[in-house]
Amino acid sequence: MVRVQVCRRCGRINLPFKYRCKCGSREFDYIEMNIEGTLVATTKIFITPKGYPSPLLVGLVDAGNLKLLVRLEEEAPVGNVIEVVQADGGVLVGRPKKLVTDGS
Ligand SMILES: [Zn+2]
Question: Selecting from 3.40.50, 2.40.50, 2.50.20, 1.10.3470, what CATH number does the domain 35-104 have?
């Protein structure tokens, strides 16, 4: 589950949170929701701060309206489905799910 900001006027989901929605409204609700998307890019960061693993796996997840930069729990190919969860401190973590194939 991920905590997201929902605009009261237009229903747009914002993450990261915005001071003002694209529609101009500044009134929001905050809800927890499941987010899944497609991994569209991935990279490894080798020079990391103390306390972080090296390499650090990072991915860009396309979840429709939301394009999220996440820390990947394990390596995954582009195109894989990623479940996004929120770790302590608000960090977005991507959990690769098994690739769904068309059976061909
Ligand atoms: Zn709005």
Answer: 2.40.50
pTM of the model: 0.85
Spans of all domains in the chain: 1-33, 35-104
65 Cα–ligand 1 center, Å: 13
Please say whether the beta carbons of 41 and 60 come within 8 A.
Answer: yes
CA of residue 74 to ligand 1 center, whole Å:
35
Distance 18 CA to ligand 1 centre (A): 10
Q: Which residue stretches of the chain have pLDDT < 50? A: none
